[in-house]
């Protein structure tokens, strides 16, 4: 075991938001996703064995999954002598990619400890091992966005081991307000239930997945052209199709309408959705929206996904 070079290792894994194309991405269609400034930070210290410090607060089943996931990443890195702990400022279990962010953060530390290159593609390859343990049949969009830390158009053809990501540049800041709209069931469960529906009514569901894939590509073009109004419209249509697939809820719909009434160019659920989770709104100016929602006691924060950087603010999340 290698106990060298582990005195001060840290690795960050960004949370993510899916702007367009969640769920259909599992079936091989493109999704547009970008990194949050919030995420998971992992730290490594020298140890005589490779191990993860598992937070006491986790339930036995969560501990088991986390241990198994870390075991796969550890094996992929040759079990370097490092003890890894982590901390997060990302709201958990909200569809903001916390497991992908954790996978990326741990993978960065493990690769450094093993004396290997922690390039985005190396990190993504190790993180993929963990993500499969967390999610069963993930598309790979979460950990890829986290590892690349850029707005990407991501696509994974069914059966292919790895997806392809194209960086999407924006001439304008793409700013979102991210709002927590209630607890939700695990992603694995929501994805599994949709899989059952699509097996039963395959043609109808595939038609909708295909349409959502087209929206993701149109959204990427709108971003590149700096046409935020078109991007907002695509987001609205995408929310409607996610609702048609049975992936929204009264709480998510209410928040989407609230953000539109507050001037959002577009608003939709993000991530797996289902009975709760996060909603995103696209705004030119996010600050007054975060201020007002926070005043009302609604958990939210803002984030810039792409484009020239300007100073942003954050609400309590
Ligand atoms: C989860 O963040 C996104 C889903 O599309 C699942 C996946 O891509 O693996 C719902």
UniProtKB/TrEMBL annotation:
EC number: 2.7.1.36
PROSITE patterns: GHMP_KINASES_ATP
Residue span(s) of domain GHMP kinase C-terminal: 221-288
Gene Ontology cellular component annotations, sorted alphabetically: cytosol
Pathway per the UniProt entry: Isoprenoid biosynthesis; isopentenyl diphosphate biosynthesis via mevalonate pathway; isopentenyl diphosphate from (R)-mevalonate: step 1/3
Major localisation: cytoplasm
Any one GO BP annotation for this protein: isopentenyl diphosphate biosynthetic process, mevalonate pathway
Domain GHMP kinase N-terminal: residue ranges: 68-148
Location of this chain's protein in the cell: Cytoplasm
Sorted UniProt keywords: ATP-binding, Cytoplasm, Kinase, Lipid biosynthesis, Lipid metabolism, Magnesium, Nucleotide-binding, Transferase
InterPro entries in the record: GHMP_kinase_C_dom, GHMP_kinase_C_sf, GHMP_kinase_N_dom, GHMP_knse_ATP-bd_CS, Mev_gal_kin, Ribosomal_Su5_D2-typ_SF, Ribsml_uS5_D2-typ_fold_subgr
One Gene Ontology MF term: ATP binding
Annotated transmembrane regions: none
PANTHER family assigned: MEVALONATE KINASE (PTHR43290)
Family: Belongs to the GHMP kinase family. Mevalonate kinase subfamily.
Name the record gives this protein: mevalonate kinase
Originating organism: Archangium gephyra
Lineage, opening ranks: Bacteria, Pseudomonadati, Myxococcota, Myxococcia, Myxococcales
